[in-house]
Amino acid sequence: CYRVRGELLKHGGRGRRSTWDSLSRPGRDQCAHTLPEFGKHSVQEECLALNALRPLFVSLKTLRERRTTQGTTDGHTQQEEREEEREEGREEEEESPFSRYSTVDLDKDLVDWAQPLAWQVGHLGERYDAWVHQPVDRPIRLFGNAFLEANTKTSWYWVPVFWLPIIFYFSWHCFVTLAQDSPQVSLTPDFSIPVHKYMFPLLFALGWFLWSFLEYSIHRFIFHMTPPGHNYYLITIHFLLHGQHHKSPYDGSRLVFPPALAAVITGGLYMALLRVIPGVLGDCVFVGALCGYVVYDMIHYYLHYGSPKRGSYLYNMKAWHVKHHFEHQRAGFGISTTFWDHPFNTVIPKERF
User: Fold this and answer.
1) Residue 245 assigned ligand-binding role
2) 304 annotated as ligand-binding
3) Whole-prediction pTM value?
4) Going by C-beta distance under 8 Å and a sequence separation of 6 or more, which residues neighbour residue 167?
5) What angle do CA 224, 324, 353 make, to 5 degrees?
6) 76 is in an annotated binding site
7) Is 342 annotated for ligand binding?
């Protein structure tokens, strides 16, 4: 007999009811009945416990139904019943994307988990792509140096703490400048259009829209590139940028981008944008894109650790992102929106989930 509550509490964590997305409907019904404390722990913690206990749930459900309809188990030997229950348990296991967590055999794994992984993964060569897409539920140490390692980890709240003051300042600066200067946009040498201060929300929205495309493009073409097996350095860079997130998708310290590194990249993108859209107009578009980035980072964290309301937009995005991690790593690249997946034909197929 399993101590269900004890097994869940052993992991710790907080409430995540959207773990239901990983279970079939019969599994959900039985778990709700058997686990009254379900929903008080993080997604991966619940799934690890549920995957271990699911055969028991199916067994209880099967026996209860048989007792209700027949009152006895006539016509079945105990051995036959056990075989049927194990078969049903395997079917339930296959339906859950979380069952794709890989167990780490420290003696047989391709890397030494006792050592920093950053300098090991490049030696995997052609085996790297398959290895990195076998998710595990354990922390990853990238560097042996404590300072470097610490700088690869970021608590989610540092993103708004760092970026929101900059967004507020740029927004105020853009609005005031538009109100005072009324810049002109020249369409021809003899014709120009004044840009009123009330155009700021439209320019802001344009920047946010451009960010959504950049979000999709970076995720698909950079984060999900397949580095050549012979290139040690590209494999290492890919693992540091995104591969480590797919290897350990619920490492809460690496779900958002470190602000210091993000600031360097953002500064380069800002200078490039000003070459295309100079002056205050470029600032307006930039601040909209920057706000889009912050919302994206917060949504990404929430999709992993949040508990959205059933049927809500974020609930559907959470199910979408879970599929991306555990079933369709080559599709579903949108994080804050699925908009760009449609024209680029990377929509995750509709299927039972």
Assistant:
1) yes
2) yes
3) 0.72
4) 287, 290, 291, 294
5) 165
6) no
7) no
Q: Which helix (H) or strand (E) covers residue 187, if one does?
A: strand 184-188
Domain assignments of the chain as residue spans, ordered by start: 4-100, 146-341
Give long-range contacts, CB 8 A cutoff, 24+ apart: 265-270. Answer: 266/290, 266/293
Cβ proximity of 24 and 95 under 8 Å:
yes
Using only the alpha carbons of the chain, give its radius of gyration. Answer: 25
Amino acid residing at 262? A
| Residue 195 CB neighbours (<10 A) | 20
The CA distances from residue 339 to 215, 220, 287, 333, in Å, are: 11, 14, 21, 10
Q: Long-range contacts made by residues 223-232, C-beta under 8 angstroms, separation at least 24?
A: 224/329, 224/330, 224/333, 226/129, 227/128, 227/129, 229/125, 229/126, 229/127, 229/128, 230/125, 232/122, 232/123
Q: Which two tokens stand for residue 64?
A: 């209860």
Does 123 count as an annotated binding residue? no
Query: Alpha-carbon distance 316 to 308, whole Å?
Result: 9
As averages over each run of 10 residues, the pLDDT of the chain (353 residues) reads 39 40 48 46 47 43 50 54 58 47 66 92 94 90 94 94 97 92 68 80 96 97 94 96 93 92 95 92 96 97 92 94 91 96 93 49
Tokens of 189: 């040498």
> According to the annotation, is 300 in a ligand binding site?
yes
Query: Most distant CA pair in the chain: distance in Å?
Result: 94
133 labeled binding residue = no
